[in-house]
Amino acid sequence: MASLEEVVSYTNQLLDINAFKDYAPNGLQVEGKGTVKTIVSAVSASELMIDRAIEQGADVLLVHHGYFWKGEDPCLTGMKGRRIRKLIKKDISLLGYHLPLDAHHQLGNNARLADILGFHAEGSMDEQGVGNYGVMKAPCNLQDLSDLVEHKLQRKPLSISAGDHIIKRIAWCSGGAQKYLKTAYKLGIDAYLSGEISENTVHEARELGVHYISAGHHATERYGVQALGEHLASQFNIKHQYIEESNPV
Question: Which of 136, 162, 193, 214 maximizes the CB count within 10 A of its CB?
Answer without folding.
Answer: 193
